[in-house]
Amino acid sequence: MGAKGGRAFEGLEKAALVAGAGLLLGACSGPQSALDPAGREAAEVARLFWVMLAGAAIIWLAVIGTAVFAGRFQKTPLGERAGLRIVLWAGAIIPTLILAALLTFGLRLMPVLRAGEPALTVHVSGEQYWWRVTYRTAQGEVETANELRLPAGRPAEILLDSADVIHSFWIPALAGKLDMIPGRTNRLVLNPERTGTYRGVCAEFCGRAHAFMAFSVEVMEPAAFEAWLARERAPAAATADAGAFLANGCGGCHSVRGTPATGTIGPDLTHVAARPTLGAGLLANTPANRRRFVSETEKLKPGVRMPAFGALESDQLDAIDAYLGSLR
Amino acid sequence: MSAVEPRTETDDARMRREEAELRAAWETPRGWRHFSACNNQTVGLWYTGASFFFFLFAGVLALIIRAQLAVPGNDLVSPGTYNQLFTLHGTMMMFLFAVPIFEAVAILILPQMLAARDLPFPRLSAFGFWCFLIGGVFVGGSILFNAAPDSGWFMYPPLATDTEQTGIGADIWLLGLSFIEIASIAAAVELIVGVLKCRPPGMRINLMPLYAWYVLIVGGMILFAFPPLIAGDILFEMQRLFDWPFFDAARGGDPVLWQHLFWIFGHPEVYIIFLPSIALLAMIVPTFARRPILGYGWIVLAAVGTGFLSFGLWAHHMFTIGLPWLSLGFFSAASEAVAIPTGVQIFVFVATLLAGRAIFSIPMLFATGALAIFVFGGLTGVMVALAPFDWQAHDSYFIVAHLHYTLIGGMFFPLIAGLYYFYPFVVGRMLSARLGRWSFWLMFAGFNIAFLPMHITGLRGMPRRVYTYPEGLGWDWLNLVSTVGAFTMAAGVLVMVWDALRPGKPRAPRNPWNAGTLEWVAGDPSEPWGIRSVPPIRSRYPLWDQPNLIREIDEGKFYLPGAPEGKRETLITDVLDATPLQVLRVPGNSFKPLIAAVLIGGSFIATTFHWWLLAIASGALGIAAIMVWLWTGTAAIPEKPERGAGLGVTLPLYASGPASVGWWAMFITMVGDGTAFISLVFAYFYYWTIHPAFPPAGMAPPDGALMLGGGAAALAAWAAMLGARRANGGGHAGRVRLLIGAAALLSVAGAALLLLAPWQAGLDPVAHVYPATVWVLVLWTALHLGVGVLMQGYCLAGALAGRLTARHDIDLRNVVLYGHFAFLTVATTLAVLVLAPRAT
Amino acid sequence: MLFRRETPNLWTLLTPPAVWALHFLFCYVAGAIICAKAPEALGELRLAIAAATGLALVIIAAAGAQAVRHWGFGSDAPPHNQPTDEDQKHFLAFATLLLAGLSAVAVLFGALPALFIAECGA
């Protein structure tokens, strides 16, 4: 059926595809990219995507090529019977077979992806608009916030729930997302493989500051992870004075273990200075940003629950900043 | 008709007289009375214009969204505004454009395609349109007052049920859209009955235009898809207004139930949008391939198959909520299976083109563009149907890209193809081919530039519904490109709008595309009668296969050539083989549907603002207005039993029971009503599965004796109505009145007993989801008995006024039919509330 | 009513997809209840789904066989576009046969999860 016109057309498309693919490969990397995987599930799914993409490209070219040919270039009409054969084979039978194969593959993949005997259990609770992270270890619970550190090569069980509205826990580089729903606990098994720093994010719209609900993910060598966990378990070892922090009521919402600050409304700050980010992935954790976040909270993160303390005297802010900076 | 005329009348004189009669009967009112028009052609035009206006409005919202996202860290709009923008963009595109434009276009072209003077319920169409307009302006206009809904078009609780975090916008969404859903169901009733009963004689089921097949399927889908959302809206609004904890996990509720109800509506809705647009292609492709569609039966397979399968996909919007893998598998399987009929659909078009001698045209340009975009969206759809891939793609920009590829390719481009195709028939002018090409290429290029990069943006981790994003994650230039594309596409839309509105376009010849179907019989669009005379049909493409058809139609050679009694009339035919059965008198222009819509709409709007007295007063007046409308406009007893319909056929003017269109309308409405009820029952059993015991320990089910007493009274009421119907058939007028009166009293007693039962058991609906669910089921049931009482009162009044006779019993038979469904509702409620707690 | 009919109608046309709908509903509801209330009974559930699948396929096959009979055993190829009782019947029968094919495939697709997934998971 007029292969000449069709072939010329496909040639053009092929060139475009090659160019597009080159662009695509260059555009896949990033700390939050599902196509730059660092965990088993993400790697499997990325591979699945590339295979499906190649198949989809072939099908698209064939269908649209035929349609354009039929509408613009063909000269001799096809007979009724031949036309019906096209409907039967190209429209029904071949798609059925492809879909059956794909479905079978997908179904078999599902239980495998999230299997694994977990060596570690972490409970993550989504709260407007941050993450309460609790490591459940044999020596008791260790609470931190807005960062997740995992040992490479060891399956980790993540238990997910929510304190207020629905959130969704997504670390594209490691695995797909799973929702955090009030009244339920969802279980996700992560298999991190490649060490590095990644970024996780809330994927379910959760209110005004939904755009600012991220967290950092660090996949570490197991030994380094154990050392970190041990440091994290220890109470605060502040070298600066807690006076201003406590006097301005920060302890009403935040905990600093080993001090009178025992609030549970906001993130635990026991080792806040050792975390990579502030405000749930909002800012790099530098002294200047710490001070800005305390004084311009609402401006930096509209919708945040914490009130801004910009009205405080400068020396009070300095003292709070110094204290927070010493919580390593 | 002509039998009584003097034989000396010449053909010319006859034609002039008939035309004058028809013009007088079908005249569209002028001036401010124009808005009293109740004619599907006029209403369809308003409907199309209004929904297209909402499309442009929602499109502007999208442009603001894209402007905000053009660069990282942008602060063009605040997060609060942004949340209103994306919520309203989705809400308006879905509820105020995509679904209504289907109803609008169908109301506009279906009568012509079926050579029907009108569809059977023009006033219902007008009522639906006014409901749609009022609700649409209310929902859309809210953003001008910074009061728009802001928790996403899917309105997930507990965010959207939280009255502190979401303001009046959520109530506007729930009540405004519930109101619009009434309009959708009204349109579905009109269209289903229209396709089944208003075809021209001889247009058998195997000769129906494919568009009519799609309309029939989609009408059926609306009946099963919208009611679950209405049920969900009821639960949702009960929580927002009265704190009944349906979605509050702390009191036994579950936010996930809303997701089920929303998506049981939401996924079929995608196909409710898609199928009618594909239906336009099914009309366009044969015309330009210059041959009949190849694979008519296959299209029917595809439409019916898609209609069914689309109800097995809803949970693929919920793949990440932590469903059991097995459940994911079932929905994954159905999601893959639905691609099969879609593939068939596409290849029928391709094969038709291959087997024809295609002419190129602007509608075909848009059709080809539609195919290119839609097939791409379908292929990514096959990808996300696999749960493991969806875990990554879900709620990311990949999905934004996917859904726009399916909707723009599956709905918008075909619709624009239809616009270019049908514009001459509706307006009588030709659109410019040159501007059409400009418009197409701007839209096509703009669309792909905007949405193709979003696949990558999403897989690189950008979640949906964020009002801004940090730089350096690889999303910056991708977003900028998308924004450029969006504005390019908008330029294409502007070109098209300019072309459609500009004056001075050339007049269209009759049937400018040389199409084969009946809508192209239409000549001058200013003639209001629809079709001059209703022809007998012998082909799928009568204008191609039946020689001289247009001329003979114009000469009034066929059925119903005039309107000798000055009444509006249309032909009713048999469902399968379209033999003529009845000449139906359809009501004329009236302000009553408009008044009823304003009053009912006022009730919904007042409820939003918690103005309870006004809401109740407005609602009561609205119901009264509907009663007056029905009393004065329906089931009129004709002055003679039958009339000559032309071509030597004499047909009755009155039919009741299953032979009447009103009975079918009641049946179809009650199927939808029953679906809403089943959704509430589903809610009960849903809670039963998630609770170890339901009713939970320490809570008693409603009093069994009272419930059974209520059921017995309802049973007696039902029996009394059956008795009344039988007595009426026997001509016992006194007994009829007695039995109807008794049925009304028994219904009141039944409703009272049913309401007393949970009251007696001390069930507090605020305390826990169990009592709340019991109350909602009981209230629903009692409400249905109450509506039954109104209907019984209406029949009684009819009997007293002499409108109800042994032969003229439409109202009574329709009310008995309602009674079957109402009693079924009572029986089911009893089974659920009395038996289920004792069985487990 | 739906079977052993002389002529097809819209209800016989809708029979095969309606069987799919019932099969789907059964699989989903039974799966949801078992995974919520008695995950240990998953083995029995998979057997029940297998049985339901067999039953559904038998009914669809019966509807398809009736459609073949109404179609005159394929003696009259499409397009079935004449204004006759014959073509009306053949059209409805042919469309029913196609729907039976699609419904059978969809039922089989719907049974695959029970074949491959042996745990409730999550």
Automatic annotation (TrEMBL), chain A:
GO MF terms, alphabetically ordered: copper ion binding; cytochrome-c oxidase activity; heme binding; oxidoreductase activity
Biological process according to GO: ATP synthesis coupled electron transport
Domain Cytochrome c residue range list: 236-328
Reactions mediated catalytically: 4 Fe(II)-[cytochrome c] + O2 + 8 H(+)(in) = 4 Fe(III)-[cytochrome c] + 2 H2O + 4 H(+)(out)
Transmembrane parts of this sequence: 50-70, 82-107
Gene3D superfamilies per the UniProt record, alphabetical: Cupredoxins - blue copper proteins
Name recorded for this polypeptide: Cytochrome aa3 subunit 2
Naturally occurring in which organism (per UniProt): Ancylobacter dichloromethanicus
UniProtKB/TrEMBL annotation, chain B:
Coiled-coil residue spans: none
UniProt xrefs under SUPFAM superfamilies: Cytochrome c oxidase subunit I-like (SSF81442), Cytochrome c oxidase subunit III-like (SSF81452)
Superkingdom field: Bacteria
Name of the protein this chain belongs to: cytochrome-c oxidase
Keyword Transmembrane helix listed: yes
Pfam families xref list: COX1 (PF00115)
Principal location listed in the UniProt entry: membrane
Organism: Ancylobacter dichloromethanicus
Any one cellular-component term (Gene Ontology): plasma membrane
Associated pathway: Energy metabolism; oxidative phosphorylation
UniProtKB/TrEMBL annotation, chain C:
Highest taxon, organism lineage: Bacteria
Keywords assigned: Membrane, Transmembrane, Transmembrane helix
TM annotation in the entry: 20-36, 48-71, 91-118
Protein name, as recorded: Transmembrane protein
Organism in which the protein naturally occurs: Ancylobacter dichloromethanicus
